[in-house]
Design goal:
Layout lengths: L1 E5 L5 E6 L9 E5 L6 H9 L8 E6 L2 E4 L6 E4 L7
């Protein structure tokens, strides 16, 4: 699995897992929910039957924050302004 930094005003995070070469069918792209990460969504994509035939792409929201008082990073897609 490759991790790509997407340059924006803030850096984005995208996880990519290439399909098996012999069975390549296309892209399967997933977006996580609130207070989750691209890694969590990648696990969901990998659990789909036949997922290894597809290139999996999991995109993380640009608004990152710490979950509660922990050091665990989570992400969101919007702010109050964009609701």
């Amino acid at each position: 699995m490759d991790v790509h930094a997407v340059p924006t005003i803030t850096h984005g995070r995208v996880l990519v897992q290439e399909a098996r070469v012999a069975a390549r069918k296309g892209l399967l792209v997933g977006f996580h929910g609130y207070m989750e990460t691209a890694a969590i969504q990648m696990q969901r994509l990998q659990a789909i039957p036949g997922a290894s035939d597809w290139t999996l792409v999991s995109i993380q929201g640009l608004h990152r924050f710490y979950r509660g008082r922990s050091q665990e990073v989570a992400a969101s897609w919007m702010t109050r302004e964009d609701r």
